[in-house]
Amino acid sequence: MIKVEELQLTFNANTPIENHVLRGLNLNIKEGEFVTVIGSNGAGKSTLLNVISGDLIADSGYVIINEKDVSHLPAWRRAGLVARVFQDPMVGTCGNLTIQENLALAYNRGKRSRLIPALNHKMTDIFREKLRVLDLGLENRLSDMMGLLSGGQRQAVSLLMSTLQPSKLLLLDEHTAALDPKTAQFVLELTNQIVKENKLTTMMVTHSMKQALHYGTRTVMLHQGRVVLDVSGEERQKLTVADLLTKFEKTRGEEVTDDTLLLG
Amino acid sequence: MSFEFFLGSLEIGLIYAIVSLGVFISFRLLDFPDLTADASFPLGGAICGLCLYLGINPWLATFFGTVGGCIAGIMTGWLYVRLNILQLLSSIIVMIGLYSINLRILGLGKYLNDEMDTWVGSPNLPLLSTNTIFSPFINEDATNQYIVQPLLVFIFVIAIWFLLNAFLNTQKGLALRATGTNQRMAKAQGIATGRMVILGMAISNGLIALGGSLFIQTQGSADITIGVGTIVIGLASIILGESIFSAKRMWAITLSVIFGSILYRLFIAIALGNELLKDIGIGSEDLNLITAILVVLALVLPKQLKKWKSKRGKSA
Question: The ABC transporter domain covers which part of the protein (chain A) (predicted)?
Answer without folding.
Answer: 2-249
